[in-house]
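Give me the fold.
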Amino acid sequence: MKFAIIFVALFAYAIAAPNRDAETLRYDVNVEPENYNFAVETSDGKSFQEEGVVKNLGTDDEAISVHGSYSYIGDDGVTYQVNYIADENGFQPQGAHIPVA
């Protein structure tokens, strides 16, 4: 469980800062046995926040429920933001630029 949480945090950091010229302006992380949260901001306008918690701890239905958001500046100069939930129902992104079924 801890490995999965740490892996998610490191993966998020890697996504938030793929540009080697960008500097990390903020990097906050808190990992507990049953929950975690982190926030990353870079000098190129990217940000990423996420919180996760273990639901139904100790049962056969134990799972991680995650919610968060990320934003970036597109090639067109517009700032795009995505809010999401990831839980037993899958990954559920929402954003003004994401088509709705």
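The beta strands are 24-31, 35-42, 47-55, 63-73, 79-87, 90-94.
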